[in-house]
Amino acid sequence: MASTTKARLAIIDDYFGLAQQHFDRINGIQIDTYSETLDPLTSSGLDALVKRLEPYQIISSMRERTPFPAELLKRLPNLKLLLNASGRNNSIDMQCASSQGIIVTGTKGDRPTDSQALQALPDLPPPKGHSSVVQHTWAMLLALCSRLAEDDRTLKTQAKIWQTGLMVPIAGKVLGIVGLGKLGIGVAKIGVLAWGMDVVAWSENLTEEKADAAAESAGLPKGSFKSVTKEELFQRSDVVSLHNVLSARSKGIVGVQELSWMKKSAILVNTSRGPLIDEQALIAALKEGGIGGAALDVFWEEPLSPDSQWRSVDEWAKSGVLLSPHMGYVNAGTMHRWYQEQAENVKRWLKGEEVSNRMN
């Protein structure tokens, strides 16, 4: 891009104010920040977002916090460079972006090898082979089973109350993994090594040969992960953890039927994407105490609206429920590295150079 005027860059959905320090190092841009998320899938949200973003040539976005459907992209005539965090984002209409002449870039989030980039990071992403999503999955499951949220709240707010319920041990039980990819393997490996759990797994194309290869990739012997049918997984598992990529095919992959297969004591964990589960079916199961509990880091609406049914879950659920605000990937090292990579791409674009990790 050759111009004597400053390019305008909008940072959106940066809830912790991490991005600007990386973009401030770039000459030739004017930066504005908008931390409040607007939903372009509603007519009012779309109009407000267009009004906000219309002046900008560059937008820094954070994963799927703000979708970029065709209806939005077509109304942003000045947009030339859309910076995404992570390497995948199904909420951006890539075909439309390409037709509008918008370059979409992603990030890897790996620890930089360049010493200058490394020293510029306030914190480091997890080492290769490790994921904060896996950590958060286990944190949520253990917190729910050990009643940490309830007991913490009770001790801090009710002076005369002591023990109020029994914890649930998970050692030796059956862990069901829906989606045996990188994250599913990471969660399953911990289940085997730390808790001696029997791991069963299912996805549409999973075979025992693939399950054995996944186990060996985690340093475990063949047979550590057993490929089963979807029905068997939900019927046998004491814990079901979801690790599918959200797509038209996987949306609602857990519905009324799957929840009815689960044991009344079983726990459902979702740190992947909210729409993998039929929301109303899950709410009904929790109201009836149809499953033992649910640990949810992701939702159908994000951020949750003030009147969301999930904000009053303690009032209506008979099952145990633990919620967190999509925190699985939100660690300082990864977030800073993503913004650092975005800033590097802005520098390349301003110089007319080829950008890295182009997605369209």
UniProtKB/TrEMBL annotation:
A GO molecular function held by the record: oxidoreductase activity, acting on the CH-OH group of donors, NAD or NADP as acceptor
Keywords for this protein: Amino-acid biosynthesis, NAD, Oxidoreductase
GO biological process: amino acid biosynthetic process
PROSITE patterns reported for this sequence: D_2_HYDROXYACID_DH_1, D_2_HYDROXYACID_DH_3
D-isomer specific 2-hydroxyacid dehydrogenase catalytic domain mapped to chain residues: 43-360
Keyword NAD: yes
Pfam families: 2-Hacid_dh (PF00389), 2-Hacid_dh_C (PF02826)
Domain D-isomer specific 2-hydroxyacid dehydrogenase NAD-binding: 139-328
InterPro entries: D-2-hydroxyacid_DH, D-isomer_2_OHA_DH_cat_dom, D-isomer_DH_CS, D-isomer_DH_CS1, D-isomer_DH_NAD-bd, NAD(P)-bd_dom_sf
Family indicated by similarity: Belongs to the D-isomer specific 2-hydroxyacid dehydrogenase family.
UniProt name for this protein: D-isomer specific 2-hydroxyacid dehydrogenase NAD-binding domain-containing protein
